[in-house]
Design a protein that fits this description.
Elements: E1 5-14, E2 24-32, E3 37-42, H1 46-52, H2 58-73, H3 86-93, E4 101-103, E5 107-111, H4 115-127
Antiparallel strand pairs: 1-2, 1-4, 1-5, 2-3
Helix pairs in contact: 2-3
Amino acid sequence: MPVPSSFDYAVVRVVPRVERGEFINAGVIVFCLERRFLEARVVVDEARLRALWPETDVELVRRHLEAIPKIAAGDASAGPIARLSQRERFHWLVSPRSTIIQVSPVHTGLCEEEPSEMVDDLARRLLGTSLPPVSR
């Protein structure tokens, strides 16, 4: 029987008009220290973004969202933040921001399966299954 591992996760949100406080879920970030796992999944739903604010610069949002999985993976093309340790990258990714791309408070859970399966499950539940991922 697998031993449960604790994990932390946060939801990435796009807030096209910060002053209005309306947002859509656009990604998940999952960190499991015990298994040395950090992964992020993001999606861009252009129609929903434009419904909240028709003048949203979708390509700019897409570029910023695409950086999140690269930073989580430690991809050198993501700049100096990607060179930090997994724990430091996770904390940097989930720090509070007041920009168009924000994250929820960090939530904690236990998983018995592989953490990558938790990413899949959270992405399905929180981002919608009909959306293709921007990156993994």
